Amino acid sequence: MSNEEILAQVSDIVDETVGLDGLVLEPSMSAADVDGWDSLTNVQILVSLEDTFGIRFRTGEIATIENIGQLVERIAARLASG
Amino acid sequence: MKTTPSSRHGGASAKPADAWRVFLREWASTHDYSALVKLSRAAEKLASIPEVASRLVPVRLAVLSTATVDFLLPVLKGALFGAGLRPTLHVEPYGQVSTSLLDAKGQLAGFDPQVTLVIYATHHLPGQPRLDASLPEIESQVDEVCRSLLGPCETFYERTGSEVVLNNFHPLPWRAAGNLGVKLPGDPNTFIRRVNLSLADRASRNIHIADVASLAERRGLDTWFDERYWYLAKQPVSFAHVADYAGLLAGLTAAILGRTRKCLILDLDNTLWGGVIGDDGLAGIQIGEGSAEGEAFKALQTYARDLKTRGVLLAVCSKNDESIAKSAFTDHPEMVLKLDDFAAFKANWQPKSENIRAIARELDLPLEAFVFVDDNPAERHEVSRELPEVAVPDLTEDVGTYVRALDAERLFETVSLTEEDLRRTETYEVRRQSLQALNEATDIPAYLTSLAMEAEVRPFEPVSMERITQLVNKTNQFNLTTPRMVRAEIESLAVDPVVLTRTVRLRDRFGDHGLISVLFARIANEVLTIEAWLMSCRVLGRGVERLLFNDLLAAARDLGLREIIGWYKPSARNGLVKDHYAQLGFQRDGGEDGVEQWCIEVKSAAPLETFIAASARSEQESS
What we know:
The structure holds two protein chains of two kinds.
Chain A: H1 3-18, H2 39-53, H3 68-80
Chain B: H1 16-29, H2 33-47, H3 50-53, E1 57-65, H4 72-82, E2 85-91, H5 97-102, H6 107-111, E3 115-119, H7 135-160, E4 163-167, H8 188-202, E5 207-210, H9 212-219, H10 221-224, H11 227-233, H12 242-256, E6 263-266, H13 277-284, H14 292-309, E7 313-319, H15 322-331, E8 342-348, H16 352-363, E9 370-373, H17 377-386, H18 402-408, H19 419-440, H20 444-450, E10 453-458, H21 465-474, H22 487-494, E11 499-508, E12 511-524, E13 527-535, H23 544-558, E14 563-568, H24 580-583, E15 587-592, E16 595-601, E17 612-614, H25 616-622
Parallel strand pairs in B: 1-2, 1-3, 3-4, 4-5, 6-7, 6-9, 7-8, 10-17, 13-14
Antiparallel strand pairs in B: 10-11, 11-12, 12-13, 14-16, 15-16
Helix pairs in contact in B: 1-2, 1-4, 2-4, 4-12, 7-8
């Protein structure tokens, strides 16, 4: 799966969770740039990402991610390592 | 970036009742967390439409927790809707369980909940023991923990009358002491198990234990708890099991409010035994020891029998020749269930939905009270399409899974085992016999006289509170105003000096019907206003309401009252009593907010004829 495809899916999940219509995420954006992406919806987004991509984030891993681009790379790395 | 919510696109044109059915179906088959949240939000909108709301039981529900409940709440709402309730929620700030419960003037007390959910995370179990603690140390620690958990709940119940649901604790999916842990009283999981046992032993009848430990064991501790989300967000249950957890709490809440299934309808061929009795004959069917399948069918029969012992009614609905079908129960030695275990028996070639309607009429229960079990997917489909109110568990083709499938939905959740429950099948049997007697008798007074009825009219008494609560919350048809109340509200009526309370117990030559009617009325300005009057439909047409009217009239005279007022609040199910007050001689006297008011003057009213003798005890009372 390419990083663009991952980004599109991440966009959809964030969009669904925070309840915005037609949100498009850019790699440079962070949670603070998205209305409604707070600590609660953050957990929901993580759960959906884990379910959708079939991966598990490590405890504390999320705190180190600064923007969407890094999140997509992390997911891509997880997918590659199986 | 914000745009209008997308809710306007879908479903706006569908009928609310149909949309609600779709919700119920989807809710039962959805497990994905975000999908559940979405369904729940859609249901909340639907539930605000009067047509849907009128079929749901409203409940004021408070939630207190030591953990994060933000993720649980939306799913809990959906589960409550799914269980037939319409919740008004009050959520106390995180982590203040005991102080909130003990604060007599706080927001929680002001909210005046009917049911309060108290959620403790296993990690917040007070008093984690030392691994090498001695047994006496652990015993006193367990004692202390249980007191600290139950004390505030009991105090809260006593002060507010809110029933309390308290969860027990799931063990942890790790154990430093390994197998030795079972021998160490101070091992965390050994300690947790002791606390769970002790909680159940000590909780009073109004503190209901949500058995999270058993549910977690069933689902598997490895997946029940996800420590990553505990560390990150104090989420006490893994997201994969939030729906399970919410379902457990909602089921218990519904049971407290009397919203629970009451009758299990069973198919016969390939459901209660293997094979087709009409084709294979008595010797050809599989039931009991001797074959793996036979044992599985026997296990289902045993489970059904246990339900019956617990007060759930059993019925048969089968496409079969009646005499052949019955012969299986009378002539097959391995049959666990016997003919007299069934409160109704339909074996014919009519559509099953029609037979189930007939069973509902015969047993005088709403369709919501039934669960239908059939191995044949086509029959299940026919019933759930025609009668969406009936619960129809999905079964696989493997009989070995039937008991689990039936049990998994917690359809028959209950909070008490009353004597009346345990005797209910018996009284339905009695009712059927007396229906037969009615068919034989040609003259109503002669029939009623022949029943040799004796009634006992009493005020609300402590020994009867459980049954009164149950009757108030379960009765739909003969119920003039359909109040829904928790036990404490009813207890407070009993001691209110301006409230007159009445119960009626009825016995006849066929058996003891127990406590079958409840009434309470308020005295003000020389007027007795009947706020609630309800009766079990088992004793319809016996003239019990006339007897109770006579008792009220006598009481009104003794108290020097001028007038008796009665209310009739029409509901979807109480059309039966729309002429109740007219038949007792009341005159229509206006009313408001959809409630009809009826009145009768005490001095011009005369006692009505009944065919029921007052028993010795109530005569003493009224003299």
